[in-house]
Amino acid sequence: MIPVVIAVIFLVYGIMHMTPGDPVAVMLGADATPELIQETREALGITDPFLVQFANYVKNLFTGHFGTSWYTGRDVSERLFAAIPYTIKLSLLAMLVALVLSIPMGVLAAVKHNSLGDYTISIFAMIGVSAPTFWVGTMLMLLCSLGWGILPSAYDGTWKSYVLPTITQGFNMLASVTRTQRSSMLEVLSADYIRTARAKGVSNFSATYKHALRNAIIPSITVAGLNFGTLIGGAVAIETVFAIPGVGRLMIDSIKLHDTPTVIGCMVFVSVMVSVINLLVDLLYALIDPRIKAQYLKGGKK
Amino acid sequence: MKKNALRILAATLVLVMMLGLTVSAHAADWDGKITIVQSSDIINWDPCASTDTNTKNCLKNIVLRCFETDDYFNVFPVLVNTFEQEDNLTWKFTLHEGVKFFDGTPVTTDDVIFCLTRAKEGSSSGKTLLKPVTQFEKVDDLTFRIHTATPYGSMTTALSNTTATILSKAWVEKAEAGECTWDDVMRNGACGRYILGERSIGNSVTLVKNPNYFNPADAAQNEELTFRIIPEGTTRTIMVQTGEADVNVNLDTASMQEVLEDPNVEILQHESSTIYYIALNCESPNLSNKLVRQAIAYAINREDCLEVGYNGYGQVWENVWAPTVYGSSDNPSGYTYNPEKAMELLAQAGVSNLTLKACVKTDAEERIAQVVQAYLAMVGINLEYTRIDNTILTEVMGAGEYDMCFDYTAFYNDPELFVGRQFQASGIGAKNYAHFDNEKVNELMVKATSTLDEAERMACYTEINKILCDECPWIGMFNSNLYALQHKGVKGVNVNVETTYYYHTIRYE
After folding, report:
1. Is A16 within the bounds of a domain?
2. Number of other CB atoms surrounding residue A75 within 10 Å
3. Contacting A residues, span 60-79, partner chain B, CB-CB under 8 Å
4. Domain tally, chain A
5. Distance between CA atoms of B199 and B42, rounded to whole angstroms?
6. Which residues share a beta bridge with B93?
7. Per-residue pLDDT tens for A71-84?
8. ipTM at complex level
């Protein structure tokens, strides 16, 4: 995980370094004199060569310092740690809603293959995969806040203000997991061992939900795990539209200001989160599928 | 099956009822609280480090300055009770008695001199605005003098700038030493109409009415101001429409059509001091000839630029300076759209097949550049434009990489505060994107800054403006309007030429 994070930092640092734009010009405003601009650049250490800046940053990171924001002059961790709970809460809620709804919908579509229900779910999933997140968010806001007046349009600290962002953020994952679950379920339901189980007198319910679902759910978990990274990335749009002060919004604000230390702080958080989720997904495989657990154990003995 | 459907419907209705309507009827049961939505958070409370508009607007409600400006940039005293010019180089000021910081300590000239010195030495705006100052002298606890090297007619305007904010010396020193935060300074070491209350970084800032404000007649008319940070323009608009917020001070012109028909909101409008313009690099071989610059000014239809670039929300303006600037309104530049005249001037200059390189930074500027490109093509000029990041404009224009740039800027009323940076050699490499340097302008500026006679200064500025219109280093395009959106029933929102920042009068009646 550490090499992955360092590689991410290197890439982001490189990209921010190459991006045209002068953070000092933003910090000092239009009245700044060329001398003051140069003095400030030197004070921030951005006149150093790229590799020196990068090495200094990584060294500080290992001592727990994310650096000082070039724009606010405050410790990056202060703002970052204030933002992290919002993003985690939103992403977990979105994931929870998406998984709770998508697995039954995918199973239902597969079991009722080629029925009206299957078509409806498939069309819904297709829209979910295609619709841009910010568009879904704006439409929901226009409908539920401006039209019906039942939910707040922006984050106000109440549970109500999490409803629209959660639906918006979970919509895409809900759709893609539903599609995956449906196709995976269809494949498993036509497998020989399910037919054998039914021939041996196992009930339809038991064959579907006890035998087939257990095997068919693994691809959905993979998709959900991979999508979690997208969820965190998608937080940039959601948090901006619904004014949630999370990491996504912090990142976009910092990119606009060329505040490299804050951008990298956000990226470190995102990369660590994605790595941790990938690890959890791997562990979950073993929990669900005894064959994978056996492989892990065998690998461990070697 | 039908039963299940009914159950789902009933559950949905219950849920909807539980959620309840978020719209509130403010006017009837107003609790003294006002919510303002703005696009960005407070960056830094330090007045010497604050450069963004939203930070400054919020800050101005917590702090006081010796002078403030009204909706038309006219200066009036606030902390200062009386002031006089003792001679051409000396100003004497007396503070109001009984003004106290939030921690109960009195505001004295020690605090004032400390803050003004700090602004002069540590802030980019302060360095420019207080440049003529040679000494701040304490007379007694309420009286101080400012000595200048040359007569300085813009002294009161300079003292009205955010950078010249007066804070408690003791608290600022603590913040500088890292012994307290700037939030603490805003809770103890300021003396404005509001005290900083709760703050949720990136989310909201709450200000609470200062019960001990020194001038009760001018105290806050609401009990609490909450600034909600809402980056998305549509969300800000919807929040005011639904009543979640009372005022949107950053109304996007893109949202105007959506709200025009809504009876729950009102749009406030004010002519601004902001001009959209094109700076022409006078040192570029393509544009060093004045006739070519004038030809470009004649070749552009500004009405189309305003319509396409800013949805028509403004007024066509052909002068270099905003209408609010001293000396500009009496000088019609005469560059009304006239392609024949443009071609005549180009022929006179002996220029043909001219290709110009321009840079733009925003969507609006890009749209304007497309219109300009089309109009210049009609007179035989090929315009190629590149989109660049805002933060490198000074750098690329200073290096002369482009013949022209599309930009917009707000003007002070007093040319003394911007001519040096924008139209004199000292500004080349900084804000003088046109690389303009004119001997006559330099002479007139020296003359204007060396007198305190208003009529004489006005005559100098009018003459400078005439020269600029003739030399054409900038082509004024249009003067944009400023807008704010308020919920129905809100009173006391004042949009001024620059932005909206006096929130103490906002209330429901």
Report:
1. no
2. 16
3. 71-73, 78-79
4. 1
5. 10
6. B83, B144
7. 777 788 888 888 99
8. 0.75
